[in-house]
Specification:
Layout (H helix, E strand, L loop, with lengths): L1 H23 L15 H11 L9 H8 L15 H20 L9 E5 L5 E3 L27 E3 L2 E10 H5 L8 H24 L26 H12 L16 E6 L4 H9 L22 E4 L1 H6 L4 E5 L7 E6 L6 E6 L5 E14 L5 E4 L3
Length: 374
């Protein structure tokens, strides 16, 4: 019974300190309580006391090191507690996830989310592989469809960095060490994925057919570069709709509809005008009342990475739930970063590692269209 009561008290203590630190760091889930005004050094001492260890006469460098579970900072019984480290790790993890969640990214709005269970290359079957079914006359046999070798290969990679919580940071009451730093790293994790996604559009790398993603052979690159207008956007829409399955040309066009208009930030205003105006924004007298027949054709997404590559190029993307465009795959579907910890050797404290496992790949060119603009 006594052991259960002690464990319960320690649990409440850990929860209270965690909420106090989250409150101080401006992280969700925090609250002002009796621990809010305590500095980190005092909280480290309290963690040892909760574990039945008395650091009353110890040098702060010793008991802070012991509270962090550092090798070489041994006190009587100190090896039995990691409460303080557990609290810091919990706060750091929540801070990292907050940063990931508040990152202002746009890639997830128009890409497909995928799942990979390991780091081996995986081939994705083309969603447009079977554009139609064959008629089966009465009494006749069904013909079989073959997947063949069509499809793109996607593979995961690991991205990450480390940060440390040192004895000096605890003694100096430096809360930023495990709130702001992991929060920024959480943002960086999501930004890393965004960088890879938009690099697909701007790098225009070759696909499995050895042809660039946007190319005349793929019929998804405007032959004449043109600024956004009713005419150029309508031509892009028509070009996407007329795409065909190369193995089943006789079945006709795939009738792919654009769902997203992806542009540099500098063209965001014009793009939104084109998608919302009742009248043709480019029409002049005597045709100023000419209807805008592409109104509502697509949802506008603008991203500053595109400005860096080209201030004029614009793109259309189909619904990734209906047609392959760009996939962002995560290990076992875990799209948020992970945080691990270990006793520091190179640093005088504890090291944390933030990592995310992801892969980005364009799966089909027919659901994407580019105009270089002017």
């Amino acid at each position: 019974m006594r052991a259960t009561l002690i464990a319960s008290n320690r649990d409440r203590f850990r929860e209270g300190v965690t909420r106090a630190l989250l409150h101080r760091g401006g992280i969700g889930g925090g609250e002002a309580n009796e621990f809010t005004g305590a500095n980190l050094q005092s909280l480290a001492r309290d963690c040892l006391l909760q574990a039945g260890i008395s650091p009353a006469f110890a040098d702060p460098r010793q008991f802070v090191g012991a509270a962090l579970g550092m090798r070489g900072a041994v006190m009587s019984g100190a090896h039995s507690t990691s409460d303080f480290l557990e609290i810091l790790a919990n706060v750091a993890n929540k801070s990292m996830l907050k940063g990931y969640g508040e990152a202002e990214e746009t890639f997830h709005l128009w890409t497909a989310k995928g799942v990979l269970v390991d780091f081996k290359p995986q081939k994705r079957v083309d969603l447009n592989l079977f554009p139609s079914l064959a008629e089966v006359p009465e009494g006749a046999e069904y013909t079989s469809g073959s997947i063949g070798n069509r499809g793109e290969t996607i593979q995961l990679a690991t991205y990450g960095k480390t940060f440390a919580i040192t004895r000096q940071a605890i003694i100096n009451d430096d809360l930023d060490a495990f709130t702001r730093v992991p929060r920024y790293m959480g943002r960086a994790a999501k930004r890393t994925i965004g960088n890879m996604v938009y690099a697909v559009l701007t790098a225009n790398a070759a696909m499995s057919d050895s042809v660039a993603l946007f190319h005349a052979d793929h019929k998804n690159l405007a032959a004449v570069a043109a600024a956004m207008s009713v005419a150029s956007l309508d031509a892009a829409r028509s070009g996407m709709a007329r795409q065909v399955d190369p193995d089943s040309i006789a079945t006709g066009a795939l009738n792919i509809r654009p769902k997203y208009l992806i542009v540099p930030v500098g063209l965001g205003g014009l793009a939104r005008t084109m998608m919302t105006a009742e009248k043709d924004p480019g029409a002049s007298s005597p045709n100023a009342s000419k209807p805008n027949h592409i109104r509502g054709m697509a949802t506008v997404i603008d991203d500053a990475r595109l400005d860096t590559a080209s201030a004029t190029a614009w793109y259309l993307a189909a619904d990734p739930n209906s047609h392959d465009t760009v996939e962002v795959a995560y290990l076992n579907g875990n799209e948020t970063p992970m945080i691990d910890q270990q006793d520091g050797w190179k640093v005088d404290g504890v090291e944390f590692k933030v990592r995310i496992d992801a892969g980005v790949k364009p799966l089909d060119f027919r659901g994407l269209y580019k105009n270089a603009g002017q």
